[in-house]
Each structure stands twice: as C-alpha cells, then as structure tokens.
Design brief:
It is built from 7 helices and 10 strands. By secondary structure, the chain is an alpha/beta fold. Strands 6-7-8-3-9-10 form a 6-stranded mixed β-sheet, with helices on both faces. A 4-stranded antiparallel β-sheet has the order 2-1-4-5, covered by helices on one side. It binds adenosine-5'-diphosphate and magnesium ion.
Amino acid sequence: MANHFRSNERQGSEDVDLFDETTSTVASQVSVPGVESGAGTTGSSAAVEDTSAPLEQVHVVTAAEPEDTTAQPGYQSVFESLSGVDAPVVSRTGNPTISFKNVTLIYPAQPNKPALEDVSLDIYPGEFVFIVGHSGSGKSSLLRLITREQVVTAGEVIVAGQDLTKLRNKKVPYLRRQIGTVYQDFKLLTDKTIYENVAFALECIGKPRSVINAQVPEVLRLVGLGEKMDNYPDQLSGGEQQRVSVARAMVNRPPLLICDEPTGNLDPAISLGIMKLLDRINRSGTTVVMATHDREMVDSMRKRVIALEAGHVVRDQEKGGYGYYGAI
Ligand code: ADP
Ligand code: MG
C-alpha cells in the first residue's frame, strides 16, 4: 500500500501511482465558469450620510465569523465538484497513522490556558481529515504535535507507530521526511526557481542528482507547472505558488501530508484547484490532515471533520460539514 510509512530510506516502487504520467495533466488547469472571486461588494459607500435616518441594526462579520454566503438563495458552491460521493471508503481498522491519547499542550507563555486539553483521536491510513475551528482553537498546535515541532505537556502522540513523546531529537528528521507540509504562506525561497525550490527539498535529504532530475519535473507536471519550472516564485500567481509548495511537499512521496490553512490566502476558484490536487493526492493513498477556516469548502467536500473549540475536540464527524460557529 502506498500509504504506509516507509521503514527505511529506500523509495518503494509501489507508490508510483501518484506520479503516473497518465494523471499528470488532470490538475493542470482548473477553470470554474461563472465563479467570481468574491470581490465587487465592497464598492464605495461615500454617499452623503443622512444622520437623521433611524439606525439600522447591522450584523458585523468578524474574521472569526466569515459571512455565510452559502445561505443566499440560488447559491452554488465552487467546490460542488469535490463533493466526495465517489471517494474511496477508508476502513478505519488496524494501526492508525496518527493517534492522540489524552493530549494536553500548554505553552509556557499561557500556563493557565491549554492550547489543547485532553484531546484523543485516531486518524487511519488513507483518510482525509479536516481540522476546523475558530482562530486560536488549537488547529496549528495539533498539527505541530504531529510534526514534533511541539511536544505534549501530557498524553501521547503516536505517528506511524512511534511515540513522539519518547522520540529522540536526532530521530526527528527521519520522522519529518515522511511528512509533507503545506502552509498558508507558501514559504518558497524567492531567490530560487520553481525547479530549484522543489529540488532543494530532495537535496536536503541527500538524494542523488539522478533522482532529483527525474522526480522534480515529474512532480511539477503533476501540479500543472511543467511549463514554469524556470520561473521564480514572484513570477507566479498565489495559486501557482501554492502548487509549488504542494509539489515540494510531495516530491519525496511521503505517506502523510499535513496542511495548515493551505487555501487561506487564495480566492475560492483558485482554492478549488489546490483542493482538487490534495484530493487526488489523497486518493492515491496519502493520508491528508488539513486545518482550515474555509467553511464552504469543508461543507462541500463531505470528508471527516474534527472540530476544535478552545483546545477541545467538540465534534468528530464522518462526512461532516463545518457546522455552527458556536460561542466559545
Ligand atoms: P489556531 O491554529 O486554531 O488558530 P493555535 O494552535 O495557533 O490555534 O493556537 C491555540 C492557542 O495557543 C491560542 O490561544 C494561541 O494564542 C496559543 N499559542 C499558539 N502558539 C503559541 C506559542 N508559540 N506560544 C504561546 N501560545 C501560543
Ligand atoms: Mg493556525
């Protein structure tokens, strides 16, 4: 199976399906007819203010409570095509890829407010799981425990059978080689070309030039950037830059992909392209765990949803939607 963690540094030949050239054009161009990027409602309201008019009650939409555009009549989601009806069913048996057992994380700067408290969950090979919740609810902290950027204050985090609370620091790089990461800010090296950015990920783990020369163009074609390998990041759109970071995360063919708000800086039509890519990567066997604020996308995709509120799991739902933004 492609979704098992490798026990050594050899590249298995079994996980080539993701990089099969028959799939390499699917993600290339995503165009969504009839979709606007959300601008256009912020026009100037500099008209003369009539101070005598009675005050109308206004509903202020804050960052933590995005406007619910899905409630409008005739609304059709950009993400309709990703509704997941034909998604493979993952049998949640055997050993989980990720297991949290009564995990509490307290940052020294906030000793009285655990970032996560008594969190238990299991994520199985091949699953696609959304982590949702308000800003500050603990999503990034949860992901940082999986990559061992943070260590629990109490409880256990087990990834691919390894107890990360006991994992020696010198073993951490080996863990990270098996986890691809994608962030909201693409974290590309601006003085390197697209090709060099992706190649760098392989150079850092000592891959020979022959492997780099074969895998980098292949993964860039997979994400639809075969023609832009020699461009620099600032010559690409935001969506293209994010595809580079997905390519960089996947070039070493990790069995687990962790994404922290990967579409946070992208408009819905562009986000759709990234989601299609992540969905395809997942269907090839990679386990995907993605933190997001993007309520519309989560509602549409009908994947497993784990909701956090103030560091607690408040919902863990198979094929869920984003749900309510309850008061904390
Ligand atoms: P989210 O990703 O859902 O926005 P975070 O995991 O970033 O949430 O944050 C959860 C809580 O932990 C928040 O109260 C935040 O202020 C706190 N926090 C996050 N990172 C740190 C840190 N490095 N030091 C201290 N507190 C932190
Ligand atoms: Mg975060």
